[in-house]
Amino acid sequence: LHCTLRPRRWRPPDDGSIHKGRPVTTGDGAMQQLRSELEMQDRSLDELSTSVGNLHRAGLEIKTELEEQNTLLTDLEHGIDENLEGMSYLSKQTTKLVKKAGGKKWCATITALSLVALVLFYLVLFL
Question: Which segments of 13-103 does DSSP mark as H helices, in order?
Answer without folding.
Answer: 28-101
